[in-house]
Design brief:
Layout lengths: L1 H18 L5 H8 L8 H23 L18 H17 L3 H8 L4 H19 L2 H5 L13
Helix pairs in contact: 5-6
């Protein structure tokens, strides 16, 4: 059941990206160009997604179960550590430079454009670098909450 739920969520997410045309890097870059020809379409897409997802998150947060009765554990909302800051910075830089978010990247990859291939190669390289780095560099010298150290 979890697989079908994840598949349905992924298909809905992909359809939302297609319908809103957020798989077009130029449209995304136009949103980031606040000093030029700014296009608010991405902000409106995000607002729509929040309105759709908010009731489900509220249900899970209150009850701890999904609509199928399965236990759900949401991530800590206020934990800010080096991994979160570093990952957010890398994500933002890549998104800002390319105009491609990882979700639409998979769709763009099917078109075979050089931009999408380079972007996806960067994502894959990032995963490999993450797994090659020693754990203490990722979590910080003192570790994180899971390893008994104090988060940043």
């Amino acid at each position: 059941m979890a697989f079908l739920t994840a598949l349905l969520a992924g298909v809905l997410f992909g359809l939302g990206l297609l319908l809103s045309r957020m798989c077009d890097p130029q449209r995304v870059l136009a949103f980031l160009d606040i000093a030029g020809r700014w296009n608010p379409a991405l902000a409106l897409t995000m607002a729509g997604a929040i309105l759709v997802a908010a009731p489900a998150f509220l249900h899970v947060r209150r009850r701890g179960i999904d609509l199928f009765g399965q236990h759900v554990e949401l991530a800590a909302r206020f934990k800010i550590d080096r991994r979160l800051i570093g990952g957010s910075a890398i994500f933002g830089i890549g998104w800002g430079l390319s105009g491609i978010c990882p979700g639409p990247a998979l769709l763009l990859l099917t078109g075979g454009s050089i931009q999408s291939i380079v972007f996806f190669g960067g994502v894959v390289a990032g995963f490999f670098v993450l797994h090659l780095l020693p754990r203490r560099l990722i979590d910080g010298a003192s570790g994180d909450a899971r390893s008994g150290g104090k988060p940043m």
